[in-house]
Amino acid sequence: MRKKIDPTLFNLCLGIFLYGVVFQIVLLFFSRRVSYSLGLWIGIVLAIAGSVHMWWSIDRGMEQASKQAAKTVGTNNLIRYFVLVAVMFVLIYTDFANPILMFCGYMGMKISAYLNPLLHKISAKVFKI
Fold first, then answer.
1. Helix axes 66-93, 99-106, angle to 10 degrees
2. Over 70: is that where the pLDDT of 2 sits?
3. Quick one: which of 57, 99, 114, 128 could link to 91 by a disulfide (CB 3.0–4.6 Å)?
4. Domain count, the chain
5. Share of the chain above pLDDT 70, in %
6. What crossing angle do the helices spanning 116-126 and 7-30 adopt, rounded to 10°?
7. Which domain holds residue 83?
C-alpha cells in the first residue's frame, strides 16, 4: 500500500468535487428540488469512487504479467460499469433522485480529466503535491 496519494488521482478527485460544487450552484438557480441535488451528488460520489477504483485496478495490473493484467483490468472495468448501470436502474425505477443529473455528476470525471493539466498547476502551488 502506498503512503502518499498519487498526484494525478488527487487532481482528478479534486476536479470532480469542484465540478460538483459549481454544478450545484448553477442548479440552485434553476431548481430547489432535493431529488436533483441528490442525483448530482450520487453521480459525483460514483465518479470519485470510479476514479479511485480505476487507479487501483491499473496500479494492481501493472504488477502482473501482460495476459493476467489485461484480464484483471478488463474485469474491474466491467465491475465499474455494472455498478453504474445498477445505480442508474435503481434511480430510474424509484423517485429517490434524478437519474439524468446522476449521469451529469458522473460526467464530472470526464470534465476533470480535461482540466487535469490546469488542476495540476494549481494543486502544485497550493497543496505542494
1. 150
2. no
3. 99
4. 1
5. 97
6. 110
7. 7-126
